[in-house]
Amino acid sequence: MSSNPSVPSEPSPLTGEPAASVTPAFSPLYQQIKSLILQSLQAGEWKPGEAIPSEMELAARYRVSQGTVRKAIDELAAENLVQRRQGKGTFVATHAERQVQYRFLKLIPDTGDVNSEGPAERRIVDCRRQRASADVARALGLRTGDPVLQVGRVLSFAGTPTILEDLWLPGGPFKGLTADRLSEHRGPMYAMFESEFGVRMVRAEEKIRAVLPDPNQSTLLRVPAGTPLLSVERVAYTYNDVPMELRRGLYHTATHHYRNELS
Amino acid sequence: MSSNPSVPSEPSPLTGEPAASVTPAFSPLYQQIKSLILQSLQAGEWKPGEAIPSEMELAARYRVSQGTVRKAIDELAAENLVQRRQGKGTFVATHAERQVQYRFLKLIPDTGDVNSEGPAERRIVDCRRQRASADVARALGLRTGDPVLQVGRVLSFAGTPTILEDLWLPGGPFKGLTADRLSEHRGPMYAMFESEFGVRMVRAEEKIRAVLPDPNQSTLLRVPAGTPLLSVERVAYTYNDVPMELRRGLYHTATHHYRNELS
DNA sequence: CAGTGGTCTAGACCACACT
DNA sequence: GTGTGGTCTAGACCACTGC
What we know:
Arc Repressor Mutant, subunit A; 30% strand; homodimer
């Protein structure tokens, strides 16, 4: 292959970047291929659940060897952006698959049997457009006062209210989202975000604390005042680390716990 | 290379396994190499912080190509068992390095500035040998009544008690551990486990809940009764998923939070 | 059967660290 | 310069899927 920070483009997607600084640092070919694939994913060239072109096709398209494409895809697979299936192809990851549903929900029943209690029962408490407060704006990368959608809901397991959460979504990308559409959909909310709004959550950060509920919260969760609850603040990101959701949850951990793996 | 589930051994470490069932499922060469390296790590052939042989050397030792060794090491590096350093070599991971100290501690100050408060001040509350209760035994893979070491301690940040935790360690591997040796050591406890007892924690699982302290706990943490606290129960594992520590922590989350990344 | 991802090899060259 | 890990290639073959 030829020299460095240029990669042979095909229909020439060439994203500007006139190399303002001196020698823009070394970037391996496979990283360049990776970002090209990433751009296609981001642009929606292949939809969630669909197969992307085969390694050979991509190798031909980008004029590199199959091994180089393979390494690029390996990294995308490691980041859960695509999913490889031997003999079938490589598929754009989605929150709609049975196996990985509720990928970001780490609260599980103490029995460990995730399926024993069936799917969560969801109730939308409220859903309204409003102007972003300072902290919501900061978390979503907006300006204070920008339009946001605020949603409150309760999740119940086996009839017991267990999670109370508030969501804030940027008004722009989620234009047209209403309480009705939220109530109607089946399956994970993030799956609906993909199919209805083309927004794919690929990564999230959570800050966890122990708190006490205020009177309103203890009513909704049907727990006594003074019951300790897990406060989980999540910021979820689409491609390129763009924040797309702020979520503040209260988890009742009497019969469930938050599970985490460290390595 | 030759046929499958046999790999050319060198000084013949050949770990039994007479293949009891029919066709022991396909296992790629690099996976076999990986487990051979894993055995050497486990046996202490290379100590934490030391370099393992170069890829070329390992390739010669196992009679495979460098690429195959590379893929084996890639996986070990992804699991944080070894660390690659370009131009220098591949090193056995350790809890003693500056960068990854407290790798398993996810509680960080709300300011986000991990270094602003300096190192934690540690106080051993108690340390005694006892017999494993049923639940401790189960978590550590022991039998009820087996000897275990129980340690209680308080961690303070900037003079404020923030973490109260109890540890249970299997009596066998940690023979000779005393309150004095615990108090004397500097740096992470897991680093001392490596250097003093040859026990390397490579992985852990945590179960998190919100709880209220009992009177004794609220005294030690200097918080009022009724203060919600994070309960973090951790089981830490050495190689081959052998549990080596049970740890029950109470985190005061007024000025700190538990941070988690999802993907 | 053909097509896909997965493994393995051998060789060339690059980037980095030490000496 | 030498040795290390890191990248890239080209080609062969294997395992899995679906027609």
